[in-house]
Design goal:
With about 190 residues, this protein is of the alpha+beta class. The chain is about 25% helix and about 30% strand. The chain folds into two domains: about 100 residues, 2-Layer Sandwich (GMP Synthetase, Chain A, domain 3); about 70 residues, Roll (SH3 type barrels), CATH 2.30.30. The chain has four helices and eight strands; from the N terminus they run H-E-E-H-H-E-H-E-E-E-E-E. Keywords: Cytoplasm, Ribosome biogenesis.
């Protein structure tokens, strides 16, 4: 399944109206201890949807459903008031109806910002390196994210076992600069008991 790219920090809003709406909703999202990851307004036929993706600014905790519901309720109030009083909500005020969808970016969305990596320390990543930075010509590597600094990430590569039933080999910690990462995303791990 293809995963849509996560926008870079300066591209979180699709267009001018999404950027305008983001300015209106960001204080409410921040009051819930969250960060606006992305805002999009999409129209399909007669249906218009305001999609707001939120996440914690830092830490590895996941946003729970109660928090999402609370943010959604608070944003509904802010948007309703904004439609009556505020220019920022003008893109919505012109519509007869619209749907508000509040969600999180999801576990498998690409990591594009240092804070995305900080939120995933300890997790298994699939990393594609830029062509000039590939080690030994490998297109991608699977590695455990151990640390993040201002320049890049520290990972331990996990090499698949040569035979079924054997443990994978874990390489030494390696620093990869942000500039040499073409694409990175979290690999969902399933644990089981034998």
């Amino acid at each position: 399944m293809a995963v849509p790219p996560r926008p870079a920090e300066d591209q979180r809003f699709q267009d001018a109206r999404a950027k305008k709406l983001a300015a209106l909703i960001e204080p409410t999202v921040a009051a819930h201890g969250l960060h606006v990851d992305e805002v999009a307004v999409t129209t399909t036929g007669q249906r218009t949807v305001l999609q707001v993706s939120v996440d914690y600014q830092e830490g590895t905790e996941n946003v729970d459903l109660d928090t999402i519901a609370g943010v959604s309720e608070a944003l509904s109030v802010v948007l309703d008031q904004g439609e009556q009083n505020d220019d920022a909500a003008a893109p919505l005020a012109a519509l007869e109806t619209y749907d508000l969808e509040v969600s999180t970016p999801g576990a498998t969305r690409p990591l594009t910002e240092p804070r995305h990596f900080r939120r995933n320390v300890g997790r298994l990543l699939e990393i594609d390196r830029t062509a000039d930075e590939r080690s030994g010509g490998a297109a991608a590597l699977t590695a455990r994210l151990n640390d993040v600094d201002d320049e890049g990430i520290v990972v331990a590569e996990i090499k698949p076992p040569p035979k079924k039933g054997m443990k994978p080999k874990i390489g030494p910690d390696t620093h990869i600069s942000f500039g040499s990462i073409a694409r990175a995303r979290v690999q969902v791990e399933f644990s089981h008991k034998d």
